[in-house]
Write a structure and sequence with these properties.
By secondary structure, the protein is mainly alpha-helical. The chain has a domain at about 85-105 and about 120-245: Alpha Horseshoe (Serine Threonine Protein Phosphatase 5, Tetratricopeptide repeat). Helices cover about 65% and strands about 5% of the residues. A 3-stranded mixed beta sheet has the order 1-2-3, covered by helices on one side. It has a two-stranded parallel ribbon with strand order 4-5. The protein is globular, with a radius of gyration of 23 Å. Residues about 1-10, about 40-65, about 70-95 and about 100-130 have low confidence and may be disordered.
Amino acid sequence: MEEFEILDFNELQKEEKGIDKAAKFLQKKIQNGFKISIVIKKQHNFALPPLQQKKNDLFSKQHQPMDIISQSSEQTENIDKQGSSTSSHSSIKMNKKLTVPPTQHETPQQDQDEQKSEKSEDDQISFYQNKNNSFEHCLKDNLLTQKIQTGLLFMRDGNSKLALEKMMDVYKEGNEQLKQCSDQQQISVLIIICIQSLCYASQVFRELGQFSEAQKCLDKCLNQFEINDFDLLCQIYIAKAQCCLFNNQYLQSLDYYTKALIQYEQVNWKLEIAKLLVKISFVYALLNDFADAKKICYEGLSILQGKLSNSDPNIYETYYTLGCIYYLEKEYDFALEYLDQSKEGLIKLYGEKHISIIKILNLQGVINHLQGNSSNAMELYEQIVCLYGDSQNVGLALVLNNLALAYLDRMKFKSAKLSFEKATAILKLYLNEQHPTFQRIEKNKKLVVAATLSYI
C-alpha cells in the first residue's frame, strides 16, 4: 500500500479551507489505497489516528445494548462549583463586541516546580476569582442569578425541560437588559449571567441528546462575547469538543481539545494537561487507534499520579477511561479489571448512587452481555434501575433498553416488553420520535414480537 504522510494537520485544513473538506480529502485518499499518517507537531508529539471507519459496530444487528461511555460524568457533579463562581467588576468592559478581558489567569508566571501554575480543582467553568465584595453582592443579589439557581435545582431534580426554559429565559432577559444598561458594574454582572445561562443551557441540551443546540449555545458565548480569560475559553472549547464527540464528529472534537491543550501547555497547568490527555485518548480509541489511545491515556495517568493522591477521583475516572478504551478494543477482561478499580474507588468517595457508579455498572452490563453472560448483565441493569429510583431521565431510558435486551436473552418476554415501553415513555418526554436514540429503541422493541413468535 502506498503511503501518503501529512505532517501538519492545521496546514491541511488551511489548504482545503476547513476541517470538513480536509477530512473528505483524506477519506478520498484512503479509498484510493493510500495509508494515512497524520502528525501534530506539538509538545507531546502525538500522531493523529488514521481516518478509518469511526467506530466498529460492537453489537449484532439484533442485540444493541447502549454503552454510556461518553466522558460527561462531570455534567451534573460540578453544578455546585459552577453555580458559586463569581466575577470581578474590573475584568469586564464594553467594546464593539461585549468583551471579557483577561483575569489573573491570563499570564500567570510559570513556577519552576509547577506548583503555582496549576489550576485549582474548584475552577470548572471559571467566572473569575478576583475578590470584589461590591461586585459579588451585586451578582448574587441580581434576580437573574436567583433564576439561574432555580434552574440548577431543576437540573438536580432531573427536570431538564424546566431547567432549559429557565436558563434560556435568563439569557434572553439578560440580553434585553444589556441593551438598556449604562452602569459598567451592572453590565459586567449581566455579561457573566448571560455566559452562565448559556453554558448551563448547553449542558442540558447535551444531556437531552440535542448536540447541535448545545453547540449553538456555546457558539453564542464565543461570538457575542470576546473572551480573553484563557481558562474560561478553554472550558468552552472542552464543552464544544464534548458536543462534537457525542455527535460522532471525532476530528472536530480533537480540534477543540487540542485548542484547549495548547492554552494549558503555555502556562504549564499540568493537571489540566493530564485531564485533557485522558479525554483525547478516548477519541483516539473511537477512531480505532488503540495503541496511541492507551499511550496517551497512560501519559495522562502518570501525570495525575505524580500530582494527586491515589484516592483522588481523577485517578478513578482515568481508570474508567482505560476501561472504555479496552472495551472498544474488545479486550473485555482488561476492561472489566479497570472498571472494577474505578468503581471501588468512586464508591468509597461518593457512595453507590453517584452517576459515575451508574455509568460503570452499565458498561459492565454491556460487556457481560456481549460475552454471552446475560444473567449477570440483567442483574447489573436491574441494580441501576433501582439506583435511579423514581427519577425519569434519558440515562434511565437507555439502561431500560439494555435491560429489555437482557430479558430477551433470558426469554422473559413480558418483562422485556414492559422495559421497552418504559424506555420509550421516558424518551417521549425529551426527544421527538425521529431522534436516532428513540428510533433505535423502537427498532429493538420489534425484537420482542419476533422472539415471542419464535418460541410459540
